[in-house]
Amino acid sequence: MRMMKRNKKKNKKETKHSSLVVRWVSVVALTIMVSFIVFSFIIYSFIGQQSMGQQKETSNEIVSKLNSTLNRIPTQLEISNVVPALTPSTREVLKGNPPISSDQPNRSAFNDDLLSSLTNRDLNVVVYNLRKEDVFDNGSAIPPFKKIKGDHQVVHVFKHRREELITYQKVRSARSGKVTGYIVVANKMTYYNGLMKNLLKWMARISVAAIIFFTLVAFIIVRDIVKPIKEMSHVALEVNDDPNSTIRIRDFHRHDELQELAVSFNQMLDRMQRYIDQQKEFVGDVSHELRTPVAVIEGHLSMLKRWGKDDPQILDESIDASLQEAKRMQHLIQEMLDLTRAEQINVQYPYAVTKVSEVLKRVVGDMSLVHKDFTIRLDMDDLPADTEIQIYQGHLEQLLVILIDNGVKYSTDRKEMNVSAGLSQDEVHIIVQDFGEGISKEEQGKIFNRFYRVDKARTREKGGNGLGLSIAQKLVTSYHGNISVDSVEGQGSQFIMVFPALSESQAKKLRQREENEQASKEQKE
User: What is the Cα Rg of the chain in Å?
Assistant: First the structure.
């Protein structure tokens, strides 16, 4: 008991550590986190590229304007020729005067594009001559001179965790094409740096909030999914501990695969329970039915052992009686095995297909030869010749033999039987009619029970065990059919079997599956 309790506790701990909820939520959270990181990185990079393009365009624009103005100077750039080359407004600014003079009342400084660029706080502009001397700047922090390859170069610089864009441009004389000086524009990109910083901050906040939110949503969804699985596991453990338990999985009121799994699981448990009940019934029925013949054989053998073996007549009678009881036991055991097999048809013959007309002709012909004193008529006018049903051929033959033998067994003076078949509304109807004793209304509902006999004394005389009709019912229902009886006492009975008819495509699919299964078995062998 202690070991069992320890094992249960151990199993619980293992189940707790390997919880599906934890696993699935972790996977979902990780997936969401990676997705948001990738998404944020893409958005951040895209916005950064767009903003950086605008900053480069701004720097290139002022460099281009300065270059287009300064390249008109034919000689080396100096203060004396650079300042006059600039706009009048620029000269006023350099002198420390307002950009708008009194003699130009209608001129706006901001109409001068170059002046607007020079007054931009983000832009530090400096013009160097060939001696690397500062001949012009806009008064802010002067970017250092750097020797460059080619006429134009853009350099990214990081200062105090902020990115700056420095553009270098050689000034060439428009007349001679010689280098006369250098333009250096440092763009501090205040707006760009602020934008990217805020964007990163908000993306981090949104990502964290989204990950937490979606993780909670995932937890709720996963818990809702795992809850039925836990209940199924609980039911499975209960049934494993007690195979006779009637506990089943409740209806989850879901319209998904879990509901289908629960229904299938319950059907499986019901089927297992039926097998257990069948096993119990089989053992109980066999022990009950074999008790009488065993007792008879034992009685005769005891009598022979005591004194009967010395009397030839008693010896012969005892041997004959024992042989008769042994044959009855053999017949009983065979019928019990047939009954057990009939309850497992969908496992043994799941894809069997049979043409009804062929089996009817063969069985009626054979039974007419066996019972020559009977007239057995066959009517298949309403049955198309190619009609097929899902049933193993041998079992359809067995059904017809059971019903015809039953009619023969309970016949009276009229030695006739009618076997008819027809197709109606995608259903095959097979009727076996006799003109014997008939069955009362009270007994019609019992004749399919195991070991039930309408006339027990007469049935025993003819070797019946009361299992034939029970086997027939199990066979028919196993193939999704239905069997019923319509009888009038003194006039006879008719047994009606109804099976779903197969379409041509359905029959073809079943045959294909049977061939595939057979091929698979041959490969394994």
Answer: 51
Residue type, 152: H
What are the tokens at 381? 């006018």
Question: Which residues lie below 8 Å from residue 374, measured CB to CB, with a gap of 6+?
Answer: 367, 368, 408, 411, 415, 416, 417
| 481-503 per-position pLDDT tens digit | 999 999 998 889 999 999 999 99
pLDDT in tens, 310-331: 777 777 887 887 887 787 777 6
**pLDDT at site 86:** 65
Query: Could you read off the pLDDT of 432-441 as tens digits, one per residue?
Result: 999 988 888 8
Q: Which residues contact 525 (CB under 8 A, 6 or more apart)?
A: none
Q: Counting every residue, how long is the chain?
A: 525
Q: Give ∠ CA 292-293-299 in degrees, rounded to 5.
A: 90
Kindly tell me the sign of the dihedral angle through the C-alpha atoms of 377, 382, 385, 389: negative
User: What CATH topology corresponds to 28-198?
Assistant: Beta-Lactamase (3.30.450)
CATH number of 349-524: 3.30.565.10
Do 435 and 507 meet the contact criterion of CB atoms below 8 Å apart?
no
Q: Which CATH architecture has domain 248-343?
A: Orthogonal Bundle (1.10)
In this predicted structure, what is the pLDDT of residue 100? 53
CB 125 within 8 A of CB 137: yes
Among 136, 138, 146, 141, which Cα is nearest to 159's? 141
Are the beta carbons of 369 and 410 closer than 8 angstroms?
no
**Under a CB-based contact definition with an 8 Å cutoff, are residues 228 and 221 in contact?**
no
In this predicted structure, the answer to whether residue 42 has a pLDDT above a threshold of 80 is yes
Show me where the domains of the chain are located: 28-198, 248-343, 349-524
For the segment 425-459, what is each residue's pLDDT rounded down to a tens digit? Answer: 899 999 999 998 888 888 887 888 766 665 544 44
